[in-house]
Write a structure and sequence with these properties.
Length: about 270
Amino acid sequence: MSIQPAWRGVAALYFVVSVTLIAWTWRGFDLTATAIMVATLLMFASCFWSASQLFGRRAAWQFALLAVPIGWFAEQMGSSHGWFFGSYTYTTVLGPAVGNVPIVIPLMWFALCLIGLVLANLALWQRPVDTSPERGRVLFGVVVAAMFVTAFDLGADPYFVFVLKAWIMEKKDGGWFGETLQGFAGWMFIGSVILILFRVWSRPLIAPPVNRTTIWAVRIPLLLYASAIVFQVCLGHPIEIRVIAIFAMGLPLLIAANAYRQWASAADIGGAK
């Protein structure tokens, strides 16, 4: 598949920005921060490409232009005023920051919301893109997608706080392995806000054709969610997280993966099933 000139320009600009951020992180921070920066930039790029193939180029930009600023604002307000997630302070572990918020965090908000939306659409409607304008259906899909995103955070937060020490919680005796339950309510709320605004702004969405490109565009969110499960099962902290991840994230993934196989089977493409 040929790459259009406009996409070449975007890819070139993203490459330059990425190299700059990686060099900045490498020079000013440690190897852990650099590895997280590289992984986040790759995840963001792959999810943006996936969104552009599934929802269309315009909708992909809309998704990113909603998720990144809203994610940054929520984290900035959380780290400075205790909004949404409770009171906490970021350390330098995650690399360079804008305001109080490491650059990788709002990029992760976009990637995770995209992953959650695709998986929820598969699990609920057996297709990666839900084109229905019916309000109740849209709202239900958004809530389920936000739950899939929050399921990731159930295991990620304790690891980032107690192992990586990426941020310091003001309250250390919360109900979830020392983490506050408010943080998960914040994840549900912010994830839902991003997703509902995307569904409203991007109307009308058009279902993509089932071909090799869209097959891979759906595989990417599935594989990224699966890799997060593997990470939490192998390295989750405390050890209970390793079991919780199998059920909290594994069940949504299995349901979505089964729906993906049914959706992909509609295409007569060798090796795509």
